[in-house]
Design brief:
mainly alpha, RNA polymerase sigma-70 factor (Sigma-E family), transcription, 70% helix, Arc Repressor Mutant, subunit A, DNA binding, single chain, elongated, 181 residues
Length: 181
């Protein structure tokens, strides 16, 4: 099998996984596609060496994380982390109960307020399912920093979501809250 065939097979097998990671990190399907495209272009240029002596999946993931981090630094903005936008999958939200939509919206807003590094740790650890060591290696930080960032991020998220819930912005499915409670 030649290099082009190997690379094509790799993209067919891992492309969707890489796109999902990029969407989780950027919150924007179009931006994620650009990030993955760039990562795959870099990987293709080094395919023979990476495939022979390294781990192409790891290389692609690391390229995606670095590209997202570079975009944050360059644009000084905080991308959304959770999932694909509704316009990419309108059928997904067609029959979602209002309480679930309110909860999802509150979580997205809370994540949007996290600093970029904490958002990336949360996306990799809890959305991507990576271990602390894998997250540290992907982000080029220590395991202790991953633990600390995750701890602080989860504490911030809990606090923000409690504020929203106390203000009546999220419901537990039991219907409207009576006044004065």
């Amino acid at each position: 099998m030649d290099v082009d065939d190997e690379f094509t097979r790799f993209v067919e097998e891992r492309g969707l996984e890489l796109l999902r990671l990029a969407v989780a990190l950027t919150g924007d399907r179009h931006q994620a596609e650009d990030v993955v495209q760039g990562a795959l272009e870099r990987l293709y240029g080094r395919w023979a060496k990476v495939a022979r002596h390294g781990d192409p999946v790891w290389y692609a993931r690391r390229s995606i994380v670095n590209a997202v981090r570079d975009r944050w630094r360059g644009e000084r903005r905080h991308p959304e982390v959770l999932g694909l936008p509704a316009e990419d999958h309108p059928e997904r939200d067609a029959y979602v109960p209002i309480d679930e939509m309110l909860t999802r919206d509150a979580v997205r807003r809370a994540l949007d307020e996290l600093p970029p590094r904490r958002r990336m740790v949360i996306a990799l650890r809890y959305w991507g399912g990576y271990t602390e060591a894998e997250t540290a290696r992907l982000m080029d930080i220590s395991v202790g920093t991953v633990k600390s960032q995750a701890h602080h991020a989860l504490r911030e998220l809990r606090g923000r979501l409690e504020q929203v819930e106390n203000a009546g912005g999220m419901r537990d499915g039991s219907g409207p809250r009576p006044a004065g409670r």
